[in-house]
Amino acid sequence: MRKLSIAQKAYVGGFLDGDRSIYVRLKPNVTYRFRHQIAPCVVFFQARKERAGLEYLHKLLGVGYIRERNDGIIEFTISDVKSIRFVLTMILPHLYLKKRQASLMLKILDKKERVETAQDFLKLCVLIDAFQHLNYSKRRVQTSASVQTVLEREGFLTP
Amino acid sequence: MRKLSIAQKAYVGGFLDGDRSIYVRLKPNVTYRFRHQIAPCVVFFQARKERAGLEYLHKLLGVGYIRERNDGIIEFTISDVKSIRFVLTMILPHLYLKKRQASLMLKILDKKERVETAQDFLKLCVLIDAFQHLNYSKRRVQTSASVQTVLEREGFLTP
After folding, report:
1. Considering the entire predicted model, what is its pTM?
2. Considering only alpha carbons, which residue of chain A is nearest residue B19?
3. Do the Cβ atoms of B18 and A18 come within 8 Å?
4. Per-residue pLDDT for B27 more than 80?
5. Catalytic (active site) residue B18
6. What is the dihedral of CA B111, B115, B121, B124, to 10 degrees?
């Protein structure tokens, strides 16, 4: 993590605004206490030939990692909570298209740390529903409703 | 055209870097002196649902126009030379991925204004070849070679 100038922060903000790249996934996973993993993510995409640009961003921010997908797209991914919070807090004043997503993501990360009961977890899932709605996510399978069904079935909540 | 703060310039730079959006087309057109039109362009693209973001950029810069394509993509296009020069000169220090394209575009705009002979025009087309090479443009039909063929056929140049 590095200290960026205002111009650098604004540049990263503009880059992120130009792309569809803040999201949070809700994944069924029995090894987790409430049977679901919450996986927040900030990703920058570019075609293979633009790899140098993502390497520039990677170096500038000093967090995350770069990988090449099978389809040749290069992804610069930031997926640990501390790094996401660092990046989004820094560029929030410079976001316009994705300001709501970034604010809601920061709220989700805060709530995620304070989950104690199944009720807390379910409230967090409702926030994730709102987030996915902002992103116009259509292939959504896991929602607060499906989480609630699982938590009731497993006895965490009474139907 | 408006005066932007450093953060605003950097934001526009980041936005442009995240997208594939500076290009120059060479179009056959018999109404032009050298039988070809040179059409420079800076475009920002977004899906329809992100229209507000492009409207923000449009208002911020105070140049260009917004249109919705048939496929639902929204384009914010800047195609007059004065506005392109204004925008690119301003954000050049904040570009990383597209710095070479922006510099070369500014050079092309300068040369374009000073074209007097068919030889000058052909030299300009060679610069456009270089530009299209930077953009990895594969569907390129018009090149300095095809322009040369036309100019020779029409008697502007001796083969």
Report:
1. 0.81
2. A18
3. yes
4. yes
5. yes
6. 0
